[in-house]
Amino acid sequence: xxxxxxxxxxxxHALIKKLLQNDRVSKIYCAPGNGGTxxxxxCENIPITDIQELADFAGENGIGxxxxxxxxxxxxxxxxxxxxxxxxxxxxxKAAALLEGSKCFAKxxxxxxxxxxxxxxxxxxxxxxxxxxxxxxxxxxxxxDGLAAGKGVLICQDKDxxxxxxxxLMKEKExxxxxxxxxxxxxxxxxxxxxxxxxxxxxxxxxxSAKDHKKIGEGETGPxxxxxxxxxxxxxxxxxVMNTFRKDILLPTLKGLKMEGLQFPGVIFFGLMINERGVxxxxxNLRMGDPETQAVLSLLDSDLLELIENTLSGNLDTTELxxxxxxCCCVVMASGGYPGxxxxxxxxxxxxxxxxxxxxxxxxxxxxxxxxxxxxVLNVVANxxxxxxxxxxxxxxxxxxxxxxxxxxxxxxxxx
Length: 416
Ligand code: AMP
Ligand code: GLY
Hints:
Helix content is about 30%, strand content about 30%. It is α+β, with helices and mostly antiparallel strands and about 425 residues long. It has four domains: about 1-90, Rossmann fold (3-Layer(aba) Sandwich); about 120-185, Dna Ligase, domain 1; about 190-320, D-amino Acid Aminotransferase, Chain A, domain 1 (2-Layer Sandwich); about 325-400, Phosphoribosylglycinamide synthetase, C-terminal domain (Glycinamide Ribonucleotide Synthetase, Chain A, domain 4, Alpha-Beta Complex). The strands form five sheets. Strands 9, 10, 13, 14, 15, 16, 17, 20 and 21 form a nine-stranded antiparallel sheet that branches. A four-stranded parallel sheet has the order 3-2-1-4, sandwiched between helices. Helix 1 (about 10-20) runs parallel beside helix 10, helix 2 runs parallel beside helix 4 (about 80-85) and helix 5 (about 95-100) crosses helix 6 (about 105-110). About 50% of the residues are buried. The model has no long low-confidence stretch (mean pLDDT about 95).
């Protein structure tokens, strides 16, 4: 089988490495890929980013499975393009991708089907939103409706901050048309969890839970990033929390998808906040998480291609996954300055000295040398019999990797 993966992150590198473990996979194309996917035997990078051209490529090259990685392509309708060419695709059609692509749509869906979430109000013009901010409780959260690369969520401690945030979103259009509508919602305290799951149109099958660390600074300080590190399973999730999640979020989501006719084979990633009042859904993503995927796949014993095939054939109700015992720790090494501006083209050394899996994200291969090319540069991923041993193994290799101005958090999987 030939597979086409789209994207260029550590997530795609990890997916490709796992898929290549299956002997039936003859070739993987990664569009556009990165310096890590370029170096995997059996994988070839192709410089295509237009969704129609990707579908044409798939049709012309006998692709048997398409795996779109990133949300922007899904929201633009990449799955529909592949389906027009009769290429099996893991991912939602354009209508369902709105559950990630429009936060207003997602909140209305959650409310309609009684899915536990923060109290909220949607606004599509600035004056009523400004009026609402005068009377609401603080802190409050403002969210751009559309995609904003994880940066469109603004947590405001008081009225002044909220006024500034509202102007940024709806007047200065910091995130363009993504801020034409906004969600204003209740601030929730608690611990976060990511639950990736597979969905075949009838069944949602959750994978092991994960804990992302979203902020750039240690102790969850500073601006939000795409994710600076993950541990799996999430230490805050036990059987009781999973049962609450199933009852208050998973099952009503399944019912809503059915009632709204939103059937597709793909991934549903639940972004959760857990506190003493229960388990809340912050958001849906309709794709694998990055860096959650790197840690969760590292613990998955089952074959990934078979899991995807069971999803495409509607057999998740009888699919049983097996997991390695223990924990995984994934640390993201980033370019100094990220999530703001940063330098590129810096050589990376020390990878061959590592024992952990190293997944490449923002780095390109030039004359056999890896050079940084993005904010999140690479992921160090290690398993252990428990979280502590996974962390120790992971940080041992983080210390072996060197590039100028590299930054990483030393507290991934730490005490909070
Ligand atoms: P989202 O893209 O909706 O997951 O939001 C990005 C991040 O903002 C989340 O991972 C949380 O850290 C934070 N966040 C979003 N909504 C809330 C909320 N209602 N209360 C507290 N934090 C939130
Ligand atoms: N790590 C969070 C995300 O993939 O959206």
